[in-house]
Amino acid sequence: MSDYAIIGKRMPRVDSRTKVMGKAKFTADLKLPGMLVGKILRSPLAHARILSIDTTKAESLPGVKAVVTGKDTEGVKWGVFAYTRDQQFIQTEKVRYIGDEVAGVAAVDEETALKALDLIDVEYEELPAVFEPMEAMASDTELIHEDFPNNINIHVNIDTGNVDENFAKAHYIREDTFVAAEESYFQAEPYAVVARFDHEECLEIWCPNGGPHMKSKPLSNAFKIPLHKVKVRKIAIGGAFGGRSEICPADYICALLAKKTNHPVKIVFTREENTIATRQGHSMITTHKTGVDENGQVLARETTCYMDGGAYSSTGPIATSVPFLSMEQAYRMGSVRYNGYRVYTNKPIRGMIRVHGRCFAAGLDIQLDLIAEQLGLDPVEMRLRNSRQPGEYTSTKSYVGSCAMDETIQKAAETSNWKEKFGKLPAYHGIGIGTNSVQTGFPMGIRGGSQSFIKFNEDGQATVMSGVVDNGQGNDNMLVQIAAEELGLLPKDIHLVSADTETTSSDPGSYSQVSTFVGGQAVMIAAKNCRKKLFDVASKILKVEPDTLVAKNRMIFVADDPEKSISIKKVVRVSLLNFNSVNAEGGYWPKVDMKREWVKNPYGQMCEAFSFGTTIVEVKVDPETGQVDVLNATACQDVGKALNPLVLEGQFEGSIAMGGQGGMLTEYHEWKDGRCLNSTMLDYKVPLACDMPEITNIIVESIDPKGPYGAKEAGMSIAMSAAQAYAAAVSNAIGVHMDSFPLTPDKILAAIKEKKAQETQAETAAMGKVN
Amino acid sequence: MEKISITLDVNGKLCELMVAPNDTLLEVLRDDLDLTGSKESCGEGVCGSCTVHIDGKPVRSCLTLALEAEGSKIKTVEGLANGDQLTDLQRSFINHGAVQCGFCTPGMLMSADALLNENPDPDRTEVKKALAGNICRCTGYAKIIEAVVHANHPHEGCPDCVPYRRSERKGEE
After folding, report:
1. Which residues contact A504 (CB under 8 A, 6 or more apart)?
2. Contact B138 A692 (CB under 8 A)
3. Cβ distance A412 to A695 under 8 Å?
4. Are A681 and B80 within 8 A, CB to CB?
C-alpha cells in the first residue's frame, strides 16, 4: 500500500517554525520566579579518599541559600541495572575521577555560587590512580570499586560453540588488533537542569533527556516519593547522541537544592562540564581473529575487546555488548566467541555514543579487506559473501525478519562507481566500504512498551499523548505524521503532548533507536482505535458499513464513492451529542525474549527489527601533510520504510558527519594523568561545514513486517558504517591498513613513512640479491 | 561590580539597561531582555550559536561586551521575522529540513542572513565559508547549505523548494 496521505512524504518538521524564530525553549532558557543558580563542586583529583568536607564558610557567604554534600543524600546510588549501582550522586567516601561530584551550592546569582564553591574546604587523601584498562586490570593498588577484582566492571562472554573446531577447518586465518581513543558527544546544548518542588510536594524538573520516564524512576527512588510526584517536563533538547539517556547527578543535586531552599534552582553546565561530567565514548582495544574458507566465507571468529569504562558502570553491560551485536547482525560469523571486558579507570564515565565501537567495527571491516586481499577478492564481493540475509538467526539467536543488507551494498557500490574506482585510483586516492547493522530497541523489561492516548476535541482536531521524547532527531514530527495519517487530519490539526511524565504513559525512550518502532506504533494503534470510533458514528450517518470508509483531509468518505462524505468535525460533534466521547488508547510492546540478559544470558530475541547500512567514501590523502580530503560519501540504509525522506536524509548526513568525518578523522580526547586536555570546542575538533563532502543518500525500503508502515531504525547504521568506510578509504589511499583510530594526520604520515622505509628496505634487499 | 546605565538598540527597539562592565552582550540579551533565542554553547567564540548582527555584521555576542554594543543596531534571531511573517531564509530552513535539534539554528540563521545581505546569490563554497564559524552537530550541514543557497532563488530540481512542491504542501503553509 503506497497511497498514504502523509506517511512517506517530505514533510517539513512541525517543530522547526518555533526553532527558526528563536522561540523554542531549551532548559537554560527557563526562568521561574525566585529561581536560584546552582553550581557543582567537582573533584580535582583522579582518585582520592574524602577525609572531611567543611561547608561553614560557604554557607555563611551572603547570597548562598544552600550547600549540599554527600551527607544530604543518604548515600543513594545510581546504576542502570540493579547489579551496576555503583555511582553516588554526591560522593561521600571516595572520588574516582577528575570531575566527580563532591558538593552542590544554590545562590542568588552565578558569581556568588562560584565564590561559595571556592569556600568549601575538602580534605582529600590522594590514592594511586589508573588511567588505562590494561594497566587497571594488572594494578595491585587500591581497587576503584572494592567489589570488582582487577577493576573489571563487566565481562560479557558469548560463545556459540565449535569455534576451535571451525578455526581448524579454516583455509586462512588472521588476527589483528585495533585501538581507538575516547570521543565525546559535543551536543550543541550544554547540559542544564531546572528543578522545583511545587505546592503539592511534587518534583517538577526540566532537563535534556533520552526518555523522561528513565529520569523519573531514579528520581522517585532517590527522593523516596511516588512516581506520580515526579513530573519530568517536556523541553526542547539540543542533541543527545546517546549521552543523555541516564539520570545525571546534576538532576539530583538540582532537585535536592530546590528541596532544601524551597526555590526553583537552575544548573547550567559549562562546556567543559558537559564533556567531563556527563558521558564520553569508550576507548577500546579490540582483537579480531577470523578464519575463512577458500571462498572467503567466515567459518569462525574470536573477538576480545577491552573497553575503558571510566569511573562508574553507567550503561556498562549494554556498552560492552553493542559493538559485537552490531557486527554479528551485519555479518554471518560462523562460530563465534566474544569476550568483552569493560574496565574501571580513574577517568570520566563512559556511556553509549552514536558511533559506539568505531574501533571494533572499523577493525572488523579492515580485517575483511585484508582477508579479501589475501584471497584476491574485491571488498564488495567479500561483504556480499558474508552479509546477513533475511530469515536468518544471528549468532546470539535473534531472528532477522526484514533485511536488505545486500541491496544496500550493491546500490552503494553502483552509485559510487566502485568497480571503476577500486584499485584503479591515482596514488594517494582511495575508496572504502563499511557495513553495519543496528538494533531497533534493546530488551527493556517493564519499560519496553509505549502507550498513547488520543482525544478528539469538539472542533474536530485532536490531542495526542505519548511518552516519546524528541532529542532533535524529529520524533515529535514522526508522531504527528502518524497520528494525522491514521486520523485523516492535517498535521496542523494535531496537538502533541509528549515527553512529560505527568501526562504520558511509560515509554522506553529514544536512545535504543526504538521511538518510531514502539512509540510511533503505539500512536498508530491508538489512532486506528480512535478512527474506528469515528467510523462507527459516520457509518450510521452515511448509512454504510464502517469498513467501507476512509478518512483523509479532515473528511470521512466511502472509498468507492467519495461523494458520500462527512467532515470529521461533524462526526465528532454528533458523537458528543449522543453522549459518546471520541478518544482512544493504544500500546505497543515489542516481542523480545524477556529472558535475554546482557551478561547472564546474552541469547534470544534482542529486538524485533534490525537496520542495515552501507557507506562508501572516496578520499584523497595529502602525503606531505597527512590531511584527508573526503571527495564524496554514499550513504545507503535499509530503513524498513521511510516515513519522511526529508528527515531521514538529515539523519544520514548527520551520521556521515559524526561517524565518519569527525569520528574517523578528528575526534578524540587527549589526557594527562586523568585530566582531559581537550574538553572545549576550541580544542576538540568536530566537523565544520567546510569540511564536509558531498553526500549521496540512498534509502532502501525492506518493509519490516513488524514495524509501523514497515519502518525500523533509521540513520544509525550509517553513523556506524561511515566510520568503517572512512577507515577503509584512507587505508586504501595510503596502502597501509590502519589499526589506530581516529586517523589523524600524524598517524597517517607515520604510516606512509614506515611503508616507504619498508619499500626502500625491500628494494635494497632485492638489489642485494641481484648483485 | 558597579552597574552602568546604557541604551541598546535591539531589533529596532531602544532598551535602557543597567549593566555591569563585564556583562557580555549575550548575557544581557538573554537575562535582561529575555531574548533567549541566542544560545550559549561553547562560551568562547568557537561555535557561533550566539551570533547576532551588530550594524549588519555577524558577531559573537558571547565575546562582545554589552557596553561595546551601545550606539549600534543589534539584531537577534527574534528580529528576523516581521511578526508572524518569516523571512525567505527562515522558510527555506524549514522546508529544506535544515533544523534538527535547533540549538545552533539561531546562530546559523544570523550568519546566513548576513551573507545573503551582502551576496544574495551565494554558491555552495561561499555558503560553506560563511558558515564555517557555526558548529552543528546534528545535520552534517548538507541541508543547511542547501537552504541558504536556495533561500533567495528556489531551484527547479529541488524537491524542497516550495514553488516546485505544490502538490504535497496543501494545508501545510
Report:
1. A212, A465, A466, A467, A497, A498
2. no
3. no
4. no
Task: Look at A26 and B103 and tell me if their CB atoms are within 8 Å.
Answer: yes
Residue A666 cell numbers, joined: 578528528
Residue with cell 549468532: A395
Enumerate the CATH 3.10.20.30 domain ranges in chain B, comma separated. Answer: 4-79
Write down the pLDDT at residue B165.
56
CA distance B43 to chain A (A): 8
Per-residue model confidence (pLDDT) at position A259: 98
Bridge partner list, A276: none
> Is the Cα dihedral B115, B118, B124, B126 positive or negative?
negative
For A480-499, write each residue's pLDDT tens digit: 999 999 999 999 999 999 99
Q: According to the model, what pLDDT value does residue A75 have? A: 84
Does position A568 have pLDDT exceeding 50, yes or no?
Answer: yes
Range(s) within chain B of domains with CATH label 1.10.150.120? 88-163
Distance from CA of B156 to the nearest CA of A (A): 16
Phi, psi of A438 (to 5 degrees): -125, 145
Chain B residues lying within 8 Å of A617, measured CB to CB: none
What chain A holds in terms of domains, given with CATH numbers, is 27-127+189-239+244-276 (3.90.1170.50), 283-443+596-751 (3.30.365.10), 444-588 (3.30.365.10)
Q: What is the 3-state secondary structure (H, E, C) of A556-571?
A: EEECCEEEEEEEHHHH
CATH superfamily of B4-79: Beta-grasp domain (3.10.20.30)
Q: What 3-state DSSP class applies to A729?
A: helix
Report chain B residues whose CB lies below 8 A from the CB of A354. Answer: none
Residue A657: list chain B partners with CB under 8 A: 137, 139-141
Query: Residue A709, by phi and psi: left (phi above 0), alpha (psi -120 to 50) or beta?
Result: left
Q: Which CATH number fits domain B88-163: 3.10.20.310, 1.20.1250.20, 3.10.20.580, 1.10.150.120?
A: 1.10.150.120
Any CB–CB contact under 8 A between B100 and chain A? Answer: yes
From the CA of A657, how many Å to the nearest CA of chain B? Answer: 5
Write out A507-538 in H/E/C secondary structure.
CCCCCCCCHHHHHHHHHHHHHHHHHHHHHHHH
Cell of B57: 555584521
Calpha distance A409→A381 (Å, rounded): 9
Output the pLDDT for position A558. 98
Considering only CB atoms, B104 lies closest to which of A188, A553, A646, namely A188
pLDDT in tens, B133-144: 999 999 999 999
Question: Mind telling me how many Å the CA of B66 is from chain A's nearest CA?
Answer: 18
Looking at every residue in chain B, the average pLDDT score rounds to: 94
Size of interface A-B (CB pairs under 8 A): 200
Partners of B160 on chain A (C-beta within 8 Å) are 10, 12, 646
Q: Residue A744: pLDDT above 60?
A: yes
Supply the pLDDT for residue A771: 53
For residue A658, give the 3-state DSSP assignment. Answer: helix
Residues 70-99 of B with CB under 8 A from A: 76-78, 80-81, 86, 90, 93-97, 99
Task: Give CA–CA dist A19/B100, Å, rounded.
Answer: 9
Q: How does DSSP assign A104-115, residue by residue? A: EEEESSHHHHHH
Give the pLDDT confidence of A1-26 residue by residue, as tens digits.
458 999 999 999 999 999 999 999 99
The residue behind cell 555576542 is B61
Mean per-residue pLDDT of chain A: 97
Interface test with B, best of A19, A183, A480, A683 (most B CBs within 10 A): A19
Calculate mean pLDDT across residues B43-58. 98
Taking the C-alpha atoms of residue B121 and residue B118, their distance in angstroms, rounded to an integer, is: 9
Chain A environment of B139 (Cβ under 8 Å)? 650, 653-654, 657
Could you say which of B103, B127, B142 has the minimum Cβ distance to residue A238? B103
